[in-house]
Amino acid sequence: MNTTSSVANTPLANGSAASDDAPKIEAVDGSAAKQSSAPPTNQDALNTKTLKQIFQLSPIGMTILDLSGSFLSANQSFCEAVGYGEYELIGRSFSELTHPEDVSLLKSLGDQLLEGDRQHFQIETRHWSKDEKPLHVGLTVTMVRDGQQRPICFLIQVINLTEQKWMEAQLSHQAFYDELTGLANRALFVNRLEQAVIRLERNASSQCAVLFLDLDRFKVINDSLGHSIGDQLLTALAGRLEACIRRCDTLARLGGDEFSILLEEIDGIEDALAVCDRVHNSLKTPFKLGSYEVFANISIGIVCSSAGYEKSSDLLRNADTALYRAKAQGGACHTVFDQTMHQRAVALWQMATQAQFAVQRKELKLHYQPIINVKHNQVVGVEALIRWYHPQHGIISPGEFIPVMEETGVITMIGQWVLKEACMQVGQWQKQLADDCIIKLNVNLSARQLMQHDLAQQIKAILDETGFPAENLRLEITETAIMHNSAEACEVLKELRAISVELCIDDFGIGYSSLSRLQQLPIDILKIDRSFVQNIGENGENTHIIRTIIDLATHLSMDIVAEGVETKAQLDGLRALGCSNIQGFYFAKPMKPEKALQFIIETNQPANSMNQIQ
Ligand code: C2E
Ligand code: MG
Ligand code: MG
User: Fold this and answer.
1) 212, 320 in Cβ contact below 8 A?
2) Ligand nearest to the CA of 585
């Protein structure tokens, strides 16, 4: 804030108080102003007219008020700031332009100046401009007195702080709010959670819940439809989530496609589960983003706190653990945290880091799930699905341990074992089956495996070693894995295609519009994701999507397999749409090798096949 002494010793104002014969004005610092009887100096050039000009041209807004607080004069900067001409201001009260809440303080400080308690004061106040825009200003108000110390007028210097205040508000908003969605950010969420935990300590009977939410396959949408559509999805999702909670709950975006919800003062876990149901229901209608219609699923981890002893960081970690479990179960679901989950997560991590020993100890086994052609009522292939028979933890599903193995990198070694084992197994079956009964073998590849540039050589070596025909091997790769490392992945896929292996896109789903990009890849088969198959028939949109996928795949000469078929209605729906390769519990769950072979033999015998399939 600037000081006032340099401008205050001047008879500036128009009107009576500032006329030429007005009493001499004393400087703010108390020293007497120079008298005209002094010897002529350059200072004489500072006659009244010049001083008025200086006042008018000063870049600092200045105004002079009479003792009742009405305008006597205002310079150009002041007039520009408030949007009034000087002639419009003269005679009006300064308080008319002042925010009502600031008027009384200004008045009492003005009274102190009049009573001589102080010479000037500085204050930040709020005002209105002529076009009713708010102004935030810094005022320096100086009492101008004559030689006998009688008050003459108030000199007010004004610095416009409006922009600076706006910037400050923006910065503090950015510190606590997410720019894209306008929701609370992680910092604000953690702060609110900490407050909630403190309140819980005081009131042991109250409960709160933390929900961690993560979009399933967001990366695919982002990569295939573009980041702008991805951003639109996140914003639209934020709106839908907001509609699922109460005003007193906190919804935050933690980053990327991760959101969190803090539910306070709930009656129990049922309240949190009800929110999850609302969230899942809200996603049943697709998002209309630009020219696309996009379905999104979300996984939710829930932790409920009724005891005041927990730390907020524990709640966050446990909600994350529960989310991880929900993801491992295939997504589009919610999971409530319990303590065993944490112990299991820690144990799993330790186990997975030593997973290579699981192979040596023969704890890893392959199960096989048949793929059936319903036109010919024949098993045409099997998918090899890994299981971990853990001595302490029982059978662990791949959804639980594959992500950890991916992170630790063990997956590349396990992947090789899976391929070799499956090739040997199905190669052996093939010898026992009739010559015209060809069983294709589907093996899953992880994203990490796809990043190995010598993957094709590794696979070729395994095919050579086991004698399994390359053309009977189908490698399943998820859309996400391809999109993760699209350029490199494309090269590896081409090399695999060159050794005659067939390539299949697994869990083909939301990003059906990304087919345009997939057509540049050497893909032979699309596997329609289970989530679409589940609601076929009941929901016109899914039927429409599956029809579109089938049409496009046919156009691009790709085969279609529908996975996750559980009911006759789903089977009939798919058949009606012309999809004849079916995998799912309706026909068979993944089975141990002996049972899988038995199923193939029984199904592919003409006499039995009709009974099984129809
Ligand atoms: P995926 O490749 O999409 O495999 C299909 C999954 O859906 C299997 O789960 C299978 O048991 C399940 N499934 C099949 N039909 C139905 C049905 O009608 N209803 C329901 N609810 N589920 C059905 P699984 O065996 O738990 O495998 C989960 C995922 O783990 C697999 O999904 C695959 O991505 C991964 N995975 C499994 N084995 C391997 C492997 O050897 N290597 C790699 N990298 N990933 C694997
Ligand atoms: Mg698969
Ligand atoms: Mg799949």
Assistant:
1) yes
2) 1
Residue 406 sits at the vertex; the CA angle it makes with 230 and 256, to the nearest 5 degrees, is 20
Residue 231: other Cβ atoms inside 10 A: 14
What lines the ligand 1 site, CB under 6 Å? 369, 385-386, 397-399, 402, 415, 418, 444-446, 476, 506-507, 530, 563-566, 583-585, 590
Helices assigned H by DSSP within 435-539: 447-450, 455-466, 479-484, 486-498, 515-518, 530-534
Cα of 382 vs centre of ligand 1, distance in Å, is 12
Q: Which domains does the chain have, with CATH numbers?
A: 42-166 (3.30.450.20), 177-337 (3.30.70.270), 368-613 (3.20.20.450)
CA of 383 to the centre of ligand 2 (A): 7
Task: Tell the residue nearest (CA) to atom 33 of ligand 1.
Answer: 444
Q: Which residue, by CA, sits nearest to atom 12 of ligand 1?
A: 564
User: Which pLDDT value is given to residue 2?
Assistant: 36
**Quick check: 580 and 375 in contact, CB under 8 A?**
yes
Residues in CB range of 534: below 8 A, 6 or more apart: 542, 564, 566, 570
> What is the identity of the amino acid at 207?
Q
Q: Are 260 and 189 in contact (CB under 8 A)?
A: yes
Angstrom distance (rounded) from CA 478 to CA 221 = 13
Mutate to test the pocket of ligand 1, among 369, 417, 420, 444 (most ligand atoms within 8 A of CB): 444
Task: Name residue 393's amino acid.
Answer: H
Q: In this predicted model, what pLDDT tens digit does every residue of 227-244 receive, in sequence order?
A: 899 999 999 999 999 999
Rounded Cα distance between 613 and 559, Å, is: 20
In this prediction the pTM is 0.57
pLDDT, tens digit, for every residue of 579-596?
999 999 999 999 999 999
